[in-house]
């Protein structure tokens, strides 16, 4: 936890770590519940979602842990909290599902709703947020073949194998290798952190065996740089994209933050401070804060877009 | 929207290659704006110092060539190339893995923060508050180093190995003659989230620990490219749970593993794997205590460990890198969770107390990630992730004692952000804080 005004090379104010916390690596999501003053975090390597007191520090156990056979969780990756409707939402790329629990769920409990299946279009779900004002769930999901790579908008109460009500993606969107999603509650504007305009590269292994037919990433010495790092290539660099809440189709962002020196080529996470009109982006080994009041206003419709 | 030059990356490569870049940062503070600086100067600085702000400002002044850098895309959008108002990052290396060569008097560290390997004289370090200059480093885009963790050394062949834990899924091997931005002598594609590597000289094999699949995979030492493992220890019976440090004991034909205790089933999950509904038997995730497991050196498949050190008395808490002293029959482990180093007997099993613990303010052990034992010179090395140092102790040091000498990769008291390759953030409106999971 860092002070909002932290700048430069600074140590965190607080750290939650150690065996008793049940945290691990690969925590690719986090949500703060301002009403109940709690932090919610998915633990991919433990198949769990943990809830901590927001002022926790040091080696402290979680207040609650959602884990067990009834949860069906495998590798929860990203998380959102809906303090208005008292729900915790997580997305699990191994389940290929968005899973909704009661906010106070603890232990081995079944989800209230699961959004998953062919009709959803979801696969590698890496970003998730919920808008209790407009009653929608927004998810970011990727497919290696380029089909259905983008932002999926579902009714908040969607359940089962249902189609999204909106989808933002396609060649005009340049969406490819993205992660965290955040929604501005006042406007419903959707913020997405994209690490790279090149799709995440195929991993060489499936479980503990080399992937059949894998031929990528041989010992090349050129600029075939890694899939997750900030590549530095400006033609492929990542960005923070912003969309209006009713955007749909193969459209470019309505607003964007990009730049070669701001680590946005590796921007994986995005968080919002609507009061101060600040956007926090995190990627690689650092985070940056941008002051952009216009991004927290209703976005105007574009005249010539490919809205469906 | 301002314009930016698409060839910036190439310029970075050229500049880095031309100047033999060092992972050592020049300054700890945030970069200051310098409008008079040329792009080349700024990029060179970024190459060394991470001067993100200057690069962004320079880029605003430059013409475009296309891609997302183009000011034509996205059309009529708000924003564009924008500098941040604040930027937090650590421009210095961090010590993660450590490997010791007492034959050639070298010590090699992996640096997860700057993606480099740093090589020092074994006798380096002291009481200075200044940065200890490495004798050799491997750093730059040609090296293919990513978020590297474990490091291993092969003194007879004068080679050192490291594992990309994230970003690259690669084992890379370098020679003692390699310096700067150089290609690895050979590389081997590994499963994602591989963490540590250990040599098994008699078998001419290497063993790799893999976090996400809770496995140990063995390869021929000289394996390259996409060579498959020759055997893998994996499954519920193995008690491998979020494995980190690994050590192959050639003398007793055993393999030691430090486990954090997290466990979950692994299923195909990537964007390239299909949507599969029939995944067989489901087993839920679990949190187990940290443990050190010992398997037979030729184990294969879902096999039980020969011995396990686990329980309250052990004090194991996020154990990371480990080393085994075959002269004095001791296991030494970097216990990250409570900033200590714990020593067990090599044959220990069950819920046992360590024979020695190094811990306390005097030790200057902060977030240790790995250890190395020097039986020749009777010393113990500890690589601290938490404060830009490595500490060298007498091998039998115990309790809250001062190290014999310190190696620094940043000036004394330089902070570290404490995270690498973060992928999410949240804002705590009550405390006015930014939350970053790692």
Short description:
Chain A is mainly β. Chain A is built from no helices and 24 strands. Residues 218-231 of chain A have low confidence and may be disordered.
Could you explain the architecture of this structure?
The complex is a heterodimer of chains A (308) and B (438). Chain A has 308 residues and is mostly beta strands. Chain A is 0% helix and 38% strand. Chain A contains no helices and 24 strands. Chain B is mainly β. Chain B folds into 2 domains: 8-69, no CATH class; 98-408, 7 Propeller (Methylamine Dehydrogenase, Chain H), CATH 2.130.10. Chain B has 3 helices and 30 strands. Chains A and B meet through strand 1, strand 3, strand 16, strand 17 and strand 18 of A and helix 1, helix 3, strand 1, strand 2 and strand 10 of B.
Number of strands of chain A: 24
Q: Write the CATH fold name of the largest domain in chain B.
A: Methylamine Dehydrogenase, Chain H
Distance between the termini of chain A: 42 Å
Class based on secondary structure composition and strand pairing of chain A:
mainly beta
Which strands sit side by side, in order, in the main sheet of chain A? Answer: 2-3-4-5
The major beta sheet of chain A can be summarized as:
4 strands, antiparallel
Total DSSP helices of chain B: 3
Biggest interface, residues from each chain: A-B, 140 and 138 residues
Along the chain, the helix and strand elements of chain A come as: EEEEEEEEEEEEEEEEEEEEEEEE
The CATH top-level class label of the largest domain in chain B: Mainly Beta
Find the count of extended strands of chain B (DSSP E, 2+ residues): 30
Outline type of chain B: globular
Q: What quaternary form is this? A: heterodimer
Strand content of chain B: 35-45%
Characterize the largest beta sheet of chain B: strand count, sense, and whether it forms a barrel.
4 strands, antiparallel
Strand content of chain A: 35-45%
The name of the CATH superfamily of the largest domain in chain B reads YVTN repeat-like/Quinoprotein amine dehydrogenase
CATH architecture of the largest domain in chain B: 7 Propeller
| N-to-C CA distance of chain B | 33 Å
Amount of helix of chain B:
under 10%
Number of helical segments with 4 or more residues of chain A: 0
